[in-house]
Specification:
The structure is a homooctamer of 146-residue chains. The first copy, chain A, is an alpha/beta fold and 146 residues long. Chain A is 51% helix and 16% strand. At the A-D interface, helix 3, helix 4 and helix 5 of A face helix 3, helix 4 and helix 5 of D.
Chain lengths: 146, 146, 146, 146, 146, 146, 146, 146
Amino acid sequence: MRLTVYLAGEIHSDWRQELIEKVQAKGLDLDFVHPQLVHDRSDSVGEDIQGPQPNAYFRDLAASDVNNFRTEVLMQKADIVIALFGEKYRQWNTAMDLSAAITMGKPTIMIRPEEFIHPLKELSRKTNVTVATVDQAVEVLAYVYE
Amino acid sequence: MRLTVYLAGEIHSDWRQELIEKVQAKGLDLDFVHPQLVHDRSDSVGEDIQGPQPNAYFRDLAASDVNNFRTEVLMQKADIVIALFGEKYRQWNTAMDLSAAITMGKPTIMIRPEEFIHPLKELSRKTNVTVATVDQAVEVLAYVYE
Amino acid sequence: MRLTVYLAGEIHSDWRQELIEKVQAKGLDLDFVHPQLVHDRSDSVGEDIQGPQPNAYFRDLAASDVNNFRTEVLMQKADIVIALFGEKYRQWNTAMDLSAAITMGKPTIMIRPEEFIHPLKELSRKTNVTVATVDQAVEVLAYVYE
Amino acid sequence: MRLTVYLAGEIHSDWRQELIEKVQAKGLDLDFVHPQLVHDRSDSVGEDIQGPQPNAYFRDLAASDVNNFRTEVLMQKADIVIALFGEKYRQWNTAMDLSAAITMGKPTIMIRPEEFIHPLKELSRKTNVTVATVDQAVEVLAYVYE
Amino acid sequence: MRLTVYLAGEIHSDWRQELIEKVQAKGLDLDFVHPQLVHDRSDSVGEDIQGPQPNAYFRDLAASDVNNFRTEVLMQKADIVIALFGEKYRQWNTAMDLSAAITMGKPTIMIRPEEFIHPLKELSRKTNVTVATVDQAVEVLAYVYE
Amino acid sequence: MRLTVYLAGEIHSDWRQELIEKVQAKGLDLDFVHPQLVHDRSDSVGEDIQGPQPNAYFRDLAASDVNNFRTEVLMQKADIVIALFGEKYRQWNTAMDLSAAITMGKPTIMIRPEEFIHPLKELSRKTNVTVATVDQAVEVLAYVYE
Amino acid sequence: MRLTVYLAGEIHSDWRQELIEKVQAKGLDLDFVHPQLVHDRSDSVGEDIQGPQPNAYFRDLAASDVNNFRTEVLMQKADIVIALFGEKYRQWNTAMDLSAAITMGKPTIMIRPEEFIHPLKELSRKTNVTVATVDQAVEVLAYVYE
Amino acid sequence: MRLTVYLAGEIHSDWRQELIEKVQAKGLDLDFVHPQLVHDRSDSVGEDIQGPQPNAYFRDLAASDVNNFRTEVLMQKADIVIALFGEKYRQWNTAMDLSAAITMGKPTIMIRPEEFIHPLKELSRKTNVTVATVDQAVEVLAYVYE
C-alpha cells in the first residue's frame, strides 16, 4: 500500500532529506510532499508572480497566498502529516499546518526537541504520536508496514 | 504527483488551450477538465437530448440540467479549480463555479482583468490566489511542483 | 418554528424592506439577516478599520475581508437564503453567495427579472425555487408555514 | 442575534477584559468563552485531578488533556473565534486554536502586533480579518450588527 | 429535552393527527413538522405562485420545487424522522424522504403495513426501527423519555 | 478520465446490458457496478449464508442486510448514479438508492417512463437529469466526454 | 452556557445519580441524558413494542433497534459524552458508544478502574480525558466553567 | 474493482490467514490490512521507540499512540471493515474499531460466536451484516462480486 506523507515544518535544516533517505533504506512504500524549501523563493514568490508590491507587508501577503495554495493542494493529497519543530524561529506555520491536519482527521506525527515539551504540550496531545528525533518518526512509519 | 485541474469560466476565447500548452511546455504533471466549450451545443444540449421544449425558457432549463451534471461530475474529480473572468458577458456561471469550489474546500486560482478588481473583490479574497493573466496562473501551478 | 433568512444580493434598491414588510403582514415567524446595506460603508470599512491603504486595489481588499467575515457569520446562522439579482451591476457577489449557500446545503430561493433567465439558467437549476418577484418569494416562504 | 465568541491566545495580559468591556459599551449581543486564564491552574490541573505524575513531562501531559477538553467543548459552541498573539512566549497554542477554528469553518479574527506580520503571514491570509489592536477587533465585531 | 419530529409519508389519511394526539396524551415534549397535507394545494402550488405552465408536466415540476423547498427547510430542523407507507399509491416520495433522512444521519422510524414487508425490506433494515402501527411508533418515541 | 457508474433500479429487464453496450459502442471510458441482478439469489442470499430463518419475514431481513452491504460498498465507489424506474413493481429500493445518492452529493440521472412523471416529480427535481429512455441516458453520459 | 452531557456505560450501579448530585452541588449548568437504566426494560422493549419474537436471538435484536434509536437521538444532542466502564460484564456497548462519540468529534471523558488500564489503553488515548473516579470526572466538568 | 478490507479484532488466533486464503481461493480482487499481529510487539512498541517509561501505565500509553496511528492510517484507506470477536479477552479494541468504522460510514461485517449474541446485540444492529464464522464472512465478500 503506497501512502503519501506531507512533511511540514522547519525549512532551515535538512531533516526532510535525512528522513526520506532513512525511509528508502527501509524500503517503505512512501511518497513525500512538502512546502517550498528555498526560503528566499518562499518569501519572494508573490512578487515573482504578481510584480512589485507597495511595501514589505503586501510583499509578504502576496507570497503567502501562493504558499497557502501549494500547502492546501499537497496536504489534501496526503495520508499522513509529519511536523518538525526546530530550535529556532517562531514556527507558527508548523503549528498551523499540524493543527489543520489534525482537524482534517489526518494521522499525524510531531517531532520536537525535548526543550519544547512544555510549550507544545496541548498540541502534542492532539497529535497521534510525538517523538524527539527523525529516527523515531521513521520507526513509527515503518510500524505501519510491519 | 498527477493532479487534475478544472478550468471554469469564459468559453468565448481560447485561454484554456493557451494555458494547457504553457503547462505542457513546463512538463507539469497535470490533467485538465472543463465545461462544454462549444457554446451552441451548450445551449441546445437539453433539446438535443429531450426533444423540443415549449419555449426558450424551458429550452434553457433543459440544457442547464445536462451542463450542471457535467460540471458536477468533473469538478468532484478536480484537485484544483481555476476560474477566468473575461471582459464580456455577465459570467454568473464563472462566479457560481468558483464559489462552489471554494465552499467544497478545493484550492482555487482566479484570473481576472484589472478592471474587475472592484466587483470581484469579495470573491477574490475567498480564492487562494488571484492573478491577471494566464501566464501568472501557470506560474502558480508550476510552484506546486518546485 | 422560528427560522432565520439571509437576504443576499442587490443593495441599491429597497427590496429587503419590501419583503420583510410583506412577511410581517402575513405574520410569518421569520428573522432576517443581510450584508451591509450602506454601499459607501461597505466599500470603506477596510480603511475605516485598518487605516489608509496604498491604493484603491488594497482599499478594496481590506474592505472585502470585513464584508466576507460578516457574510460568513450571518450565513452560517441562516436556515434559508434568498438571493435577488437586480437589473444593474455585475452582481458577482450575489452569485457567489447563492452558490456558497447551495453548496453548504441551505434551502434557497432566487429572485431574478425574466431578462436574466438565460445567463442565470444553470444557477437557477441548482436553486430550490426561482421566481421573478418579491411577492412570489414571500409566497414560497409562507408555504413552509401552511 | 446572539453570537458566542471564543477568545484564544495570550493569557498574560488583560486583553480579554478590555475587549469585553468595549463590546459591552457598544451594546453588542455577544457572549464570550475562553481558555483557563489562571496560568498556574492551567499548568497544574492535570495533577490537581489525577494526582502526582512521575515527572514534569507527564505533569504537562496530564494538564494538556484537561485543557484540550475545555477548549474543544467551548470552541464547538462558538460562532466566531478571535486569536491574539502577544509579544512574548512562543504561543503555539494560539496558532493551534486559530488554525483548528479556520479548518472547522469558523469565522475568525487575528490580533497581532505589526512586528509579527512576517512570521504570521500565511496564517493571517487564512484568517478572515487580521488587525493590530483590540479596538480594531471590536470594530469588526460591531460591523456584523450594523 | 424538546425534540422536533418530521412526519413524512402518506397525506390521504389522518395518521399524523392520530400520532400527535397520542403523543400529547403521554405528555412527551415533541414538536411536529410535515409536508403540505392538502393534496390539491401540493399539486397546484407551482402554478399558484409561478402562474400557468405550458402543460401538466411543467405544472408538476413547478410544484415540486416548492414542495422540495419546504421539505428541505423542515427536515433540516428535525431531530427525528418518521415515515409512514400507506396501502395505496406508489409513495416514492415517502421512500425518498426516509432515505434522505437516513443518509443525513437522522434517527428514523418506519411505519408500514405487514403486506409491505417484502418490497420495503432493504429500506427497513437501514431504518432504526420499523413498526406496523402508529401506536407502536408512539411507544418508540415515548421510550426516549423514559 | 475513467469514471464508475452505479446502475440502480429494476432488475427484471435487461436495460443495464443495453446501456452498457451503447456506452461501449461510443467508446466512453466508464466502468459499471450494480446490485445483484438474479432476483431469486437476491431474495435467498440471507438464508444461503445464515441458514434457515424462522419465517418469511426474517428470511427477508437476512437477505436485506447482505444486499445493503453490497449496495453500500459499490455506491461509495461510484462517481455517477443512474436509477431506472420500470413499469411494474413498487420499486421503493430504486427511490431509496437514488435519494441516498443525491444526499451523498453524487451526480445522478433518472430514467422513467412518462406515465410516472407525476408520482416521481419531487424526486425528479432533486436529480440532476431526468430522461425517459436508456438512449437519452447514454447521451447524457457521452456529453461529459465531449 | 448550558451544556448537555450523555452518560454512557454501566447501568448496574448508581454512578449516574452520584455524578449528577455532585454536579448539582457545584451549581454547574449541565443537563444529563443517558440510555435506558432499567435493565429488564432495556432487554424487553423490542417485544414490548413489536410483540413476541421467534426466539431469544430475535428478541434481542428487536430490543436493540429501539435502544439504538434512543441512543442516537440523545447522543446527537449531547455536547459532552462521559463513559464509565464498571468492573463486571463485557460492556461492549460502552466501548461502542464512546468510540462513536469520539468519531463524531464530541469531547469525551472515560471513567475506568485502574485494573482496566491495559485493555482500554488504545481507547483511552483517543478519549480527551481518562480518570478513575466519578469525583474526578466532576472536576473535569467543573473546569470548563472556571 | 479492487477493494481494501481492514481486519479488526482478535490477534490470538489465525482467523485472518484463514479468511485471506479462502478469499484467494475464490479469486476475489481484495487487499487486506490489519493491526499489528504480534502481541508482544504491540505492547512494547511505545518503549521500543520512545525508550523506557516510568511504569507499566505509561508504557501502555506510549504503545497505544503508535497502535492508534497505524489503525487510523490503514482504516482510512479501507473500503470495508470486518471485526471478529473471539471467545477470550475483553476486546474493547474490537468494539472501538468497529464502532469507529460504522460512524465513518464504512460498510462493515461482524463475526462473533453465538454465545455473544446478547452482549453484542446493539453493535450487531448497527453493523451491516453479522455472521458467526469466517466462511460466512467470505461469502458476504464474494456476494459483492457476483
